Amino acid sequence: MFKKLSLAALTAIGLSTGAYAAGGEAHVEDYSFSFEGPFGSYDQMQLQRGLKIYTEVCSACHGLQYVPIRDLSALGYNEDEVFAYASQFEVWDPELNDGDGDFRTALPTDQFPAVTSANAPDLSLMAKKRAGFHGPYGLGINQFFKGMGGAEYIASLLHGYEEAPECAPEDFPGNYNTVFTAGGYPPSCLNEEGHHTVPGSWIGMGQPLWGEDVEFDDGHSNSLESEVEDVAAFLMWTAEPKMMQRKEAGFIGVFFLLLMSVLLYLVNKRIWAPIKRKG
Ligand code: HEC
Question: Which residues form the signal peptide (predicted)?
Fold first, then answer.
């Protein structure tokens, strides 16, 4: 019975993905990030490059309001560098000016500024928000089996801009992106059942990275391919700065569970030993 049911379920999933793909499923690339897998960890230099890209390009529109600036010390910056980084931002302090509030230079204890442009979502947690969007119907299957998460989504999204397909009228607003699925479609790109016939959809954000958008002091590549990975890794860090500690805690937990299993096994043997010997 159970076998039959699961077979039916599997077939259903298989069939539905087939149907979905026919409508043009967005393709999220499977990047291999340093922080993937049970032993993976963040690459500090990559996070520093990502921060630079965020600061020079993305922060024009996007905020990171849940990230304290002092956390940048985790990227390998010393106190002075974090202080200097903070001082480029202005924050609103409600206590200044006799309680009327005023702007002042940001300190490491402040958060990154909030959203700066209308409609541009805050990016602090975006990498986690979009983590489960892979695989059929956002079941998170690709995340589970291939370790693909929000960082893959963001890198693919930034790389997913293409010329609008022929079905779209030239004046359709937005930018065609093969990875973005939450946007709108021109009616001419829908079939009779209302399903879209092209992968992706139209996004309000114009292509932000083109390659060579920033210069790195150490001469590291600033190709588009490399930039999208760097900024995606950085946004994974903002969304989950304690990923390494979480993995470590997991290992310690598993270690103690194993230890307890061994002890229980030995205790069990000892308790039953006299009875077993009789038989
Ligand atoms: C000119 C302003 C602007 C810049 C610069 C910009 N963005 Fe955006 N971004 C937007 C807007 C507006 C949206 C919302 C688009 C929509 O929902 O149609 C958006 C949406 C997003 C999303 C969410 C997509 C989703 O699945 O909902 C991500 C991720 C993102 N941007 C990342 C970036 C990164 C990384 C950079 C820097 C490399 C960047 N953006 C630069 C304006 C901008």
Answer: 1-21
